[in-house]
Amino acid sequence: MNDFRIHQHYAKALFLLARDLNVTDSVMQDMTTVGRVCAENHILNKVMDNPTIREDKKRAIVSDIFAEHVSETSLAFLLFVVRRKRAVNLRGIAEAYQSVYREANGIVVARVRTAADLNDGLAARLQSEVERFTGKRVSLECETTDRMLGGFQLMFDTYLVDARLQTRIDRMHRAFSRNDYESKL
């Protein structure tokens, strides 16, 4: 089974369990924490992927790291994943759970990348426009980058709105390169 299917399989199982226990929101927070910790800590990923480290040591490590930060349900699930020899998949499962949760709750993640920080008014307007377009609730993630001259780039679902200054300059450059504005004598 490939990793994507493993992540989806375990994430859906966790979501069904959390829904039955009526703790989907707290498990969402827990999986956000797990995903963030795994993304930031490359040593943890190497330890979980190392076949020479025994399973009981991996369970102890997971328990030590997450016991104070996640619910009992989430911790029991994480230990179950380690016991099933899927410790290397913790980050992927956590991210897949977030996707399953958002889909079940009608939430779309919209990522906006800009050259400068968005003010609250503009972020709220962008969020409301995406909500109007999709008909779903929107979670807006803002990112600033110094690799952009100006404008913004908005990504959600399968859509990309590219309103970067560089894109406009490139279009103008192509238009002038075609000599559409030269006299046809």
Strand order of the largest sheet: 2-1-3-4
| Biggest beta sheet summary | 4 strands, mixed
- Described by the principal axes of the CA atoms, the overall outline is elongated
Cα separation of the termini: 66 Å
Rg, please? 22 Å
* Uncertain residue ranges: none
CATH superfamily of the largest domain: N-terminal domain of the delta subunit of the F1F0-ATP synthase
Overall average residue pLDDT: 91
Q: Which topology of the largest domain does CATH recognise?
A: Peroxidase, domain 1
* CATH arch. level architecture of the largest domain: Orthogonal Bundle
Tell me the number of structural domains. Answer: 2
What is the highest CATH level, the class of the largest domain? Answer: Mainly Alpha
Structural class, by secondary structure, is: alpha+beta
Count of alpha/pi helices: 8
Portion of residues in beta strands equals 15-25%
Approximately how much helix is present in the residues?
55-70%
Q: Give the ordered list of helices and strands.
A: HHHHHHEHEEEH
Number of strands: 4
Give an overview in words.
The chain is of the alpha+beta class. It has two domains: 3-103, Orthogonal Bundle (Peroxidase, domain 1), CATH 1.10.520; 107-177, Glutaredoxin (3-Layer(aba) Sandwich). Helices cover 60% and strands 15% of the residues. The protein contains eight helices and four strands, in the order ααααααβαβββα. The chain has helices at residues 3-21, 24-40, 42-49, 55-66, 72-83, 90-104, 120-134, 165-177; strands spanning 107-114, 137-144, 151-156, 159-164. The chain has a four-stranded mixed β-sheet. Strand 3 and strand 4 form a beta hairpin. Helix 1 packs across helix 6 (90-104) and helix 4 runs antiparallel to helix 5. The radius of gyration is 22 Å and the shape is elongated. It starts with a helix and ends in an 8-residue tail after the last helix. The model has no long low-confidence stretch (mean pLDDT 91).
